[in-house]
Amino acid sequence: MNARQEDTASLFHRHASKMKVVAQLILGDNDEADDAVGDVFADVATGKISTEGDKMEAMLFTCLRNRCLNILKRKSLFEKIKGKMKLENHIDISPPDRQIARLEEILDFIDTQLTQQTARIVRMHYQKKMKYREIAAELGISEAAVYKHLAQGIKKLKEKFN
Fold first, then answer.
1. How far apart are CA 157 and CA 162, in angstroms?
2. What is the structure's pLDDT at 10?
3. N or C: which end of the chain has fewer CB within 10 A?
4. For 60-96, b where at least 16 C-beta lie within 10 A, e where not — what string?
């Protein structure tokens, strides 16, 4: 375990329960709150959120608030679109060939370049839309281990495809 992972695990253990309460208040959904908190710590683990400075707790809660507000905004937009679209009028919105090729390249990278456990967790979260808690329960690992694997997978995907 490197220094960043140790720092992230320590931060997770100190702040995750308080952050989950705040996220539940904002989102009104226990599973979404778990994911929002996990996503913030995944960003910490990958270095997207810096752990430098003496106001770490304030920064974590600000990032969490922003994550929750983005979730609410997406939900609101989805509801507006869903309300305007009639299900009877099916519109074919299949992606162009280059997008399909890009997705196939990403899936191949996940299967061949990530560890088996990390690939499994990435697929469970993003393809099966499973929550951190569900993944942890199914695989018999901690939620902290789930977010570490996701953070590692996301970091490698960003390095390859950004």
1. 8
2. 81
3. C
4. bbebbbebbeebeeeeeeeeeeeeeeeeeeeeeeeee
| DSSP per residue, 6-59 | HHHHHHHHHHHHHHHHHHHHHHS-HHHHHHHHHHHHHHHHHTSS---SS-HHHH
CB 143 within 8 A of CB 35: no
Supply angle C-alpha 141, 41, 152, rounded to 5: 65
74, two tokens: 């997406």
Structure tokens at 103: 């997705």
Question: For residues 141 and 82, which has the higher predicted lDDT (pLDDT)?
Answer: 141
* Measured distance CA(125)–CA(110) in Å, rounded: 13
State how far the Cα of 127 lies from the Cα of 2, in Å rounded to an integer.
29
Segment 43-68 shows an average pLDDT of 83
From the list 72, 48, 50, 71, the residue with the least C-alpha distance to 59 is 50
pLDDT per residue over 15-33, tens digit each?
888 999 988 988 888 888 8
Exposed/middle/buried for residue 128 (C-beta within 10 Å: 0-12, 13-18, 19+): exposed
The rounded mean pLDDT for the chain is 82
